[in-house]
Amino acid sequence: MEGLKWDEKGLMPAVVQDANTREVLMVAYMNNEAFDLTIKTKKAHFYSRSRQKLWLKGESSGHTQEVKEVRIDCDNDTVLLLVDQKVAACHTGYFSCFYRAWDDEWKIVGTKVFDEKDVYGEKKTD
Fold first, then answer.
1. Which residues on adjacent β-strands are paired with residue 83?
2. Pairing of β 12-18 and β 79-85
3. What value, to the nearest 5°, has the Cα angle with vertex 72 and ends 53 and 77?
4. How many whole angstroms separate alpha carbon 9 and alpha carbon 40?
5. Per-residue model confidence as pLDDT tens digits over 6-46
6. What is the pTM of this model?
């Protein structure tokens, strides 16, 4: 895509929102290949900085994100994906990765929708 601004590592932040509720589900990074695959397949793909590899969201859990719309910010350096989230976005079992809020301490305000040990065993990957 013309005009996109990648950082010095060839990455761009991607904010993921539920297409219906607009709840922010997660933030990840995309490289050009992840962006292209997301556009072509309508399934969210990202680049894992820790594993140094491309990944399809939900490849191990089955909790995929069907992309409904792709937006870019005014500086062309952050992507917004509006998605239909299958089961949950967070590998800890919560629907959103942003399931804690500060109120003199971190309090859980989100909904846990699956047991991560049942999905990932002891290893949590996506």
1. 18, 67
2. parallel
3. 60
4. 23
5. 999 999 999 999 999 999 999 999 999 999 999 999 999 99
6. 0.90
